Amino acid sequence: MTDIEILQQPFTLPCGVTIPSRIIKSAMSENDADKGGRPSDRLIRLYERWGKSGAGILISGNVMVDSKALGEPHNVVIEDETYLPELTEWATKAQQEGTQLWMQINHPGRQAPRINKEIVSPSDVQLPMKAMFAKPRPLEEDEIWDIIEGFGNTAAIAKKAGWGGVQIHGAHGYLVSQFLSSLTNLRTDQWGGSLENRARFVLEIYRNIRKKVGADYPVGIKINSADFQRGAFTEEESLQVIKMLSEEGMDLIEISGGTYERGAMMGTMQKESTKQREAYFADFIVKARQVTRTPLLLTGGFRTRSVMADAIRNDELDFVGMARPFAIYPRIPKDFFEDKMDKIAPVNLKTGVKFVDKMGFIDLKWHTEQLHIMGKGQDPKLKLSVWKIAWKTITTMNG
Fold first, then answer.
1. What's the chain's Rg over C-alpha atoms?
2. Which helix (H) or strand (E) covers residue 101, if one does?
3. Is the separation of the CB atoms in 8 and 99 below 8 Å?
């Protein structure tokens, strides 16, 4: 088959649901909800546009399960059915051409900025960026079970609203990731210590979701290949957790990596030779394939159509994920399928300030601003000033 034919192939998940193509828009935090975490008209407009892109799945930015634990000031929050009409409209408009919309469900844990009154985590390990992030309080046993229940309730609401599936955010240093890491999980009870205990939280979340949505509804997870920090979640541990999740019946596992402290998901940790191969976590996905036959999605670095197709052709993975490219080229899959594009041109977003560029925050915020622009019904602005975004980030850091 040609590269285009490979990327256009449908794929049936273990739960029986068929995904129409192999290109997935991975999650980007839109940070564009209305007051109270209400899904805004802007978000619905943005996803309606992406719904015409030809992507197999659109994965939303993180939807928070608790209004008292926000990762950003304007996250969508789904604790009950208050916003069911908005969620239903969002799903209907995004999926009208066959693309599926999945909800990424999340709790920030210690990566909740100071706009929150109280920060919780498995243990009281504080982020180094103390001006932005307060020291967390260790979660009590009943609070852990409440959060597990919250994930399940949010997933059930997503299904009721007509969303195509859900994804647990278990990567990038958020709460699930914090439980998995021995650097942030210092507990000595059933939730800490051994990897089996540290993985208990994510396994219980999956089981609770599955119980609430049924066997025929897609449930996926985003997980780190590693945290890229000394003493934190390792590749070997990630492979073991992937095996555990596969045995539980997970439908799709997305591989990423890094945390707020070590931004591997932004490409800042990769050697030049790795960047030339495009996929940031290409070596790990091959290892993951050896321990599971659960469908795999790899996100991070893909830019060339032939490289994407070869990864599928070589049976390294089943789906190719892209995030930031969708912020500037909102119809990438169709452009690939219609042979209007075969490679995504890079955008230079360097400020020249090394520590800022290494963290990747400005790059992230620049692309988020493009989402806001499209949410207003406008086209992306590739010439948008990086310094303008840097200033906006600094002035709005605390909400």
1. 19
2. strand 100-106
3. no
Q: What is the mean pLDDT of the chain?
A: 91
Reduced to 3 states (helix: H, G, I; strand: E, B; else coil), residue 338 is coil
Residue 18 amino acid letter? T
Q: How far is CA 150 from CA 109, 118, 203, 281, 385, in A?
A: 14, 18, 14, 31, 39
C-alpha span between 288 and 294 (Å, rounded): 9
Number of alpha carbons in the 13 Å side-chain half-sphere of residue 157? 24
State how beta strands 23-25 and 57-59 pair.
parallel
Contact 166, 219 (CB under 8 A): yes
Q: What mean pLDDT is predicted for residues 97-104?
A: 98
Question: Which one, of 218, 215, 105, 209, lies nearest residue 152 by Cα?
Answer: 209
Name the burial class of residue 398, with classes exposed (0-12), middle (13-18) and buried (19+) by CB atoms within 10 angstroms of its CB: exposed
119: Cβ–Cβ under 8 A, 6 or more apart, which residues?
Answer: 69, 109, 110, 112, 133, 134, 135, 136, 137
3-state SS, residue 299: strand
Nearest CA-CA partner of 167 in 58, 74, 285: 58
pLDDT in tens, 139-169: 999 999 999 999 999 999 999 999 999 999 9
> Taking residues 84-113, what's their average pLDDT?
98
CA–CA distance, 60 with 43 (Å, rounded to integer): 10
Which pTM value belongs to this model?
A: 0.92
Mean pLDDT, residues 31-51 taken together: 98
Domains of the chain: 3-347 (3.20.20.70)
User: Where does the pLDDT of residue 393 fall: very low under 50, low under 70, confident under 90, or very high at 90 and above?
Assistant: low
pLDDT confidence of residue 363: 86
What stretches of 150-208 adopt beta strand conformation (E)? 165-170
